[in-house]
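4.2 Preliminary Data

To establish feasibility before requesting continued support, the project team ran the inverse folding procedure on a target of 326 residues. The structure was first converted into the token representation described in Section 3, and no sequence information of any kind was made available to the design step. The complete token record follows.
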């Protein structure tokens, strides 16, 4: 118990702080990771920062290495990349991804880390958890050759979904967002862009990631008969009004939830979460994903950064946190 690290904690809703924490000595099956960078999962982490997790979802929303309980005090996060400073010989000195909160160093079981493939820099690797979410969504509702597909919401998750869809032969992909500045993101991903009012209709599938009721409503309106919306948004304790009149019944439309906490049913018996994460890291060899990392701040500034992301004064897709030498 001789080592110490610094960790970000939510002291109370809307107020974060940096705390000193003691690290246990790693056991024979553990690794000591010195953090290089972490990513802020903007939608979920700002919701946690505001204290917006419903009581009914306290257990379901726990992160793998979370400490404390909702609404606060709680240590929360799950996009961490670092170097193994102690542990099994095969991992020593390797750069790894782990579903760990924002902390300068940590001890976890070796099985909890995934090594980065060649060609994946640490800052891009913080997107691994988000690419996993996109992979799971495409396992939930696989695109078919020639499909017309829209992604409503050009944030972290929507961007990752759009980029993966762009690699499917014959699929026409449109990224839809109220912010026309996101057209550049669509271009870098090789997909079309449209504002909600200009988005093409008769879509076979629409992936919804905007976390707004208006976005979900528009996603339904874009569907062809028998089409389905794949809902990836997390609304927390917010009400989501939705009009299911009009074409919803006559055109047999559907809304399906997709969530990364479990492997999609189509692959649940043939892939583990570790397999899915390894695939996500391989997919991150694509440098186009760099477009999603739109800012970097030092770890010491994290309480202010999350406050600004939460109130909207800091625009970002994925905001990364740098730890210097850890």
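Position-by-position output of the design step:
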């Amino acid at each position: 118990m001789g080592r110490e690290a610094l960790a970000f904690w939510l002291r109370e809703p809307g107020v974060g702080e940096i705390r000193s924490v003691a690290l246990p000595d790693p056991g024979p099956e553990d690794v000591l990771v010195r953090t290089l960078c972490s990513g802020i999962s903007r939608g979920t982490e700002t919701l946690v920062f505001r204290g917006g997790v419903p009581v009914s979802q306290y257990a379901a929303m726990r992160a793998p290495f979370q400490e404390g309980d909702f609404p606060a005090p709680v240590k929360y996060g799950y996009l961490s990349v670092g170097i193994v400073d102690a542990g099994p010989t095969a991992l020593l000195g390797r750069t790894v991804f782990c579903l760990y909160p924002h902390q300068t160093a940590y001890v976890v079981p070796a099985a909890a880390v995934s090594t980065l493939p060649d060609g994946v820099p640490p800052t891009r690797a913080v997107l691994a958890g988000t690419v996993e979410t996109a992979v799971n969504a495409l396992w939930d509702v696989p695109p078919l050759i020639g499909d017309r597909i829209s992604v409503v919401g050009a944030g972290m998750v929507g961007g990752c979904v759009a980029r993966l869809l762009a690699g499917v032969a014959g699929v026409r992909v449109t990224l839809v967002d109220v912010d026309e500045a996101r057209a550049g993101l669509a271009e870098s991903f090789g997909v079309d862009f449209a504002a909600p009012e200009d988005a093409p209709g008769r879509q076979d599938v629409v992936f919804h990631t905007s976390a707004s009721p208006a976005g979900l409503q528009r996603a339904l309106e874009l569907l062809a008969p028998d089409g389905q919306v794949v809902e990836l948004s997390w609304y927390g304790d917010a009400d989501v009004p939705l009009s299911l009149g009009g074409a919803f019944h006559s055109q047999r439309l559907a809304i399906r939830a997709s969530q990364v906490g479990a492997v999609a049913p189509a692959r649940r018996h043939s892939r583990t979460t570790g397999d899915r994460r390894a695939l996500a890291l391989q997919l991150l060899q694509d440098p186009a994903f760099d477009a999603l990392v739109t800012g970097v701040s030092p770890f010491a500034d994290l309480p202010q950064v999350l406050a600004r992301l939460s109130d909207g004064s800091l625009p970002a897709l994925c905001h990364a946190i740098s730890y210097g030498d850890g």
